[in-house]
Amino acid sequence: MQSTPRKISRILVLGGGSAGLIAAHTLKRKLPQVEVEVLRSKEIGIIGVGEGTTAAFPRHFFEYLKMNPQDFYKEAEPTWKLGIRFLWGPEEFFYTFSREYSQRWPEMSRNVGFYVDRQTRGAGITSACMARDKAFPRKPDGSPHLHNNHAFHIENVKLVAWLEKACMREKVKITDGTMASAEAAGGEITALHLEDGRRVTADLYIDASGFRSELLGRALGTPYVDYSKSLFCDRAVIAGWPRTHEPIKPYTIAETMNAGWCWQIEHENWINRGYVYSSAFISDEEALSEFRSKNPKIANEPRVVKFRSGRYRDHWTGNVVGVGNSVGFVEPLEATALQLIVVESSTLADTLVDSLCEPPPSLIKLYNKYNSGAWDDIRDFLAVHYAFNTRLDTPFWRACRADTDLAGATQVVDFYKENGPSVVAADSMLHPSNSFGIEGYIVMLLGQQVPHAKPHVPTPQEAKIWSGRLAAFDSHAVAGASVEDTLKWIRQPNANWA
Ligand SMILES: Cc1cc2nc3c(=O)[nH]c(=O)nc-3n(C[C@H](O)[C@H](O)[C@H](O)COP(=O)(O)OP(=O)(O)OC[C@H]3O[C@@H](n4cnc5c(N)ncnc54)[C@H](O)[C@@H]3O)c2cc1C
Predict the structure, then answer these.
(1) Could you report the per-residue pLDDT of 362-397, keeping only the tens digit for each?
(2) 151: Cβ below 6 Å to ligand 1?
């Protein structure tokens, strides 16, 4: 049911995990006149996982919200992530946040993807840096060339601590308390009842209660859109070990496993591993044993997290807007949860700003279309990772190759099979807000060596330009700054980089 326009002057955010705090902080920074309160339960706590971001994260905080990156680096202690190194398909390859395969170098007749061969892992300075374990190229003065076209690895607990301080600086009220029940009437929430007897009300409720989805799912019974035809995994086992002499890699690793895949995320002092698997193909015990044998250094007790893939249909239902795990979940194969949270938070803030805090049904309808589209785009893109990965021949991967529903990715995959890595008419297949774009699809399809009908044979002159450029990227990367060099550099007392 759509809400009728009403003036929103008080917002209550249920949940103090990264979703609740990002939403509260964004709303208060963009709408200082609105009262924003976060209600969070210390007893229930936060999920405590979610360690990789996409490039949408620095853009949200440092460009959209104009926050000071120095505070963030000091308090959240992130490291830089340039992309994902996929141990996937016949050979390994890099997925970056840059445009490498969809651009055309002026001297060449086709876009870069057409020159990629079986040995190519990337074709730009970002993938060259990844191949050399370098975070940034250097400027002529030798300092790292920092930019915002990267993502981060951040420990969830440190991120939440930084967000809490940022919220307090903006005068967001943070209250401890556990909601026992929600009062609802006419498809809207009328009040929340806390376990200690308090009753709280607001004009708009943000449901950021994580997998519990207290308001959107439980209280309002919003219909659920299931993604299990495209994404078969439903569990993860997570553990890690303290870093000793291992260099800090500027990327996440995504490694094919017997019944799913394993991430490796790089924190300054901790290496985090997680095996995402399908319980229909492997038991928890077998998954744990495969995980341990791949990661003999594991130092803490592995933790199993269960999840289901999908989303609630209308993220804005009545006077409730969901953000984060409370609106849905997809596995972190492209580490997109924090990206969705910042997109949901900024879209909500912009909706309220533009509607003078009285959003009409037409805007709410578009909000829902835009945000559910962003979720479905991720399902579609992840489906391509499963449908074409030929690295292992286990029952799980055979089922993925045979049965994965490509859903909205079907058109772009069919186009690729007929036309190769062409970018012609890409905008008519993928809408401009698709965060992976044609670049992402080309990287995944070429990376997994999915055959296509239009291979291009480079001319001798093109072959020379190709190898010369790759060599130039490589020598630039060799001279680049590692994560350790860059951390040292930003921590100098007088470094002027912000
Ligand atoms: C295995 C796994 C790996 C992941 N990896 C990544 C990744 O690499 N990158 C990424 O971006 N994301 C990742 N995620 C997603 C990540 O969990 C989310 O991005 C993020 O942490 C958002 O969590 P949240 O705030 O929605 O939920 P939570 O952290 O669970 O917070 C929920 C909040 O609601 C409160 N709450 C709940 N019920 C009540 C109640 N009744 N009363 C009061 N308060 C209540 C809780 O106390 C808590 O404060 C991963 C998730 C999983 C499961």
Answers:
(1) 999 999 999 999 999 999 999 999 999 999 999 999
(2) no
Task: Give strand pairing partners of 14.
Answer: 39, 207
Q: Which pLDDT value is given to residue 427?
A: 85
| 10-51+156-227+312-376 classified as CATH 3.90.550.10 | no
- The predicted-structure confidence for 284-303, as pLDDT tens digits, reads as follows 999 999 999 999 999 999 99
Per-chain mean pLDDT for the chain: 95
Tens digits of per-residue pLDDT, 70-129?
899 999 999 999 999 999 999 999 999 999 999 999 999 999 999 998 888 889 999 999
Q: In whole angstroms, what is the distance from residue 240 CA to residue 272 CA? A: 4
272: phi then psi, degrees, rounded to nearest 5: -110, 125
Best mutation site among 37, 47, 343 for ligand 1, i.e. most ligand atoms within 8 A of its Cβ?
47
Binding site membership of 274 for ligand 1 (Cβ less than 6 Å):
yes
Which residues, at least 6 apart from 26, have a Cβ–Cβ distance to it below 8 Å? 60, 65, 342, 345, 346, 348, 349
Q: Is 236 in the pocket of ligand 1 (CB under 6 A)?
A: yes
Residue 1, pLDDT score: 46
Q: How far is the CA of 337 from the centre of ligand 1 (A)?
A: 9
Residues of the chain with CATH 3.50.50.60: 10-51+156-227+312-376
Among residues 422, 432, 481, 423, the alpha carbon closest in space to that of 456 is found at: 422
Q: Is 302 in the pocket of ligand 1 (CB under 6 A)?
A: no
Residue 467 Cα to ligand 1 midpoint, Å, equals 45
Determine contact, residues 146/138, Cβ cutoff 8 Å.
Answer: no
What is the distance in A from the centroid of ligand 1 to the CA of 121? Answer: 33
| 455: nearest Cα among 421, 428, 483 | 421
